[in-house]
Amino acid sequence: MDKRSAETVGALGTLGALGGAFAFILGFADVGYGDKLLAAGGLLVLSGLLLRIEAAIWRSSGPAVGGD
Fold first, then answer.
1. What is the pTM of this model?
2. Is residue 68 pLDDT above 70, yes or no?
3. Residue 28 CA: distances (Å) to CA of 31, 56, 59, 63
4. Of 9, 26, 44, 57, which is the most exposed, with the fewest CB atoms less than 10 Å away?
């Protein structure tokens, strides 16, 4: 993965985390899908943060295994 791809993955992770945070906050409001929004929002935040971590690792050191 080159640097541009890592930046794209990081941007997608940011968007996922922001969308998840929005869904999580809406889960606390009385919207009707409260429990499901809390769970989906939490999962989106976690996956978005994992994508950002992966992108940061790729940007800093390149691939860990098989990076010829």
1. 0.76
2. no
3. 8, 31, 36, 40
4. 57
